[in-house]
Amino acid sequence: MHLGMLLEMAADGMADRVALGPKASGITFAELANRARRLGAALATSPGERVGLIDLNSPAVPLTLLGSALAGKPFVPINYRLADPQLRAIVTRTAPATIIVGEGVAERVGPVEGITYLHRADALALAADPEAKQADGWGGDADDIAVLLFTSGTTGEPKAAVLRHSNLTEYIITTVEFAGSGEDEAAIVSVPPYHIAGISAVLSSTYSGRRVVQLEAFEPQAWVDIVRAESITHAMVVPTMLGRILDIVEADGLGLPSMRSLSYGGGPMPLPVIERAVSLLPDVGFVNAYGLTETSSTIAVLGPDDHAAAFASDDPQVRARLASVGRPLPALEVSIRDAAGEQLPVGERGEIYVRGGQVSGEYLGRGTSLDSDGWFPTRDEGHLDDGGYLFVHGRLDDVIVRGGENLSPGEIEAVLLEHPAVLEAAVVGIPSKEWGEGVAAAVVVSGAVTEDELKAHVRSRLRSSRTPDRIQFREELPFNESGKLLRRVLRTELADTFA
Amino acid sequence: MLPRLRLPVQPGRLENVSLVTKPGGRYRSTVDATEIIVVKAATSPIDLRCGGHPVVAVGDEVPAGLALDPSFADGTPLGKRFADTDSGLELLCTKAGEGSLSIGATPLPLKDAKPLPSSD
Alpha-carbon distance A353 to A365, whole Å? Predict the structure, then answer.
């Protein structure tokens, strides 16, 4: 299947519904398709084999994603926040291509061989021109590359994850009911276009018939204002976004009356934040989603019913599920394996493997990382409970080996975050003469608390080997713009500090 | 374009049997506007019909002179998925039509899928 098929179905089946923008003045699905087809016809004959985008959120994002599909060229959204040398390096790797750019981007990057820049305003004008030629057909085959996404590159050189039309359409048709959204539903999209959640937001909304209102880039007050003004019913946020949204809602006491479903993902959510969210927004259904770029977004969800059941339960095992990512999607298989690749019993920790049509596991120029049976090793550590709930403990590469014992930073971080004074916590391994690796923590605190008190707090809940050897108090932790902790940066800083 | 298999299904008579054994294969009704795409292939060739007549691959010639069979005229709604548990066949309707889908004379049921919470 092909993204062109999803667009054609939406335009056929929901022609007059508003697809994008304000309820009163937005464009319909029929018009979205017309504009994507015009941009698609232009991109098909524009220079280069790919279509890049370096820009904030705007109607150019869905139009370029869909237009590239109809043009038969991969869509390559690039992180506009990268420093100039990194941005230029990624642009060079994207050549030969036409790249749609926001204000000032072409000037920042400068000329690159094989790259033609097209300004956002010109692309949007072309797409809206009723005289412009429209692409016909779907634009290609299911096996064609739909999207190339450069991974966030918190470690080493960024890799370009390959998502084929078959991966993305499998994800959409197995998780989203066609035209399943009510006509009054609207989603706010504030995740950046170069994040997998930005791609899946466009496709899910198009297929379900949900109106999208975009926020150029996340800013908490603007987010809250748009949600209230546009009667937004659905949103997806990363953990750092949610905390900042709650600060505003708590301060002004006005709530988010139209909101029905708030999905969070993209990183571990501290339990205190979600507890605070549930108490401040009691009428909102919360959804925790776990997924990776290489799996075309979500692979497991903890839905509103799961949240409610966990909150209401006295059974510690059921209550613990609040910290899980829910159950794997029905069209997928998940398996927990040891270092030798052998499947582990329920309850035991190992590497999370996943298999299914939405799983790509492929990187440009590096081939597939699926094994011969089609399983993708995620490099995430996790376990399943006997109800089939998946718990994610963090990246395997972040595991601390202290005196031969494997420690998960996520477990220690969760305990630190339970302390009322701790706002943010991160745990990394640092070189230790005695243990090989020692446990170092960095915390952001709101009140008076000492290092010894925090150590005693961890020791009372976990084994002493898991108690941080050293704790650093900081003003803030290093996150990238998607809310992902830059562990490598932190590890280097803490190793230097505590050397 | 996908090949079509011609097999004798009744002694002395040839009938179209659609070979819906490849995911992504696209077929259309010969008597109404219905179009479908194969999501999961059947394990063996299937006599897939719409409006009472065998479907043809999109792009293939549509036989002339056929009419919608009133017994198979309940309609095929856009975006609905259909599944046959015996053969493993799973289809998605990509264009709505008046005819309804069947395997031979047995109606093809809608796939029963519980809606998932929205995560995007």
Answer: 22
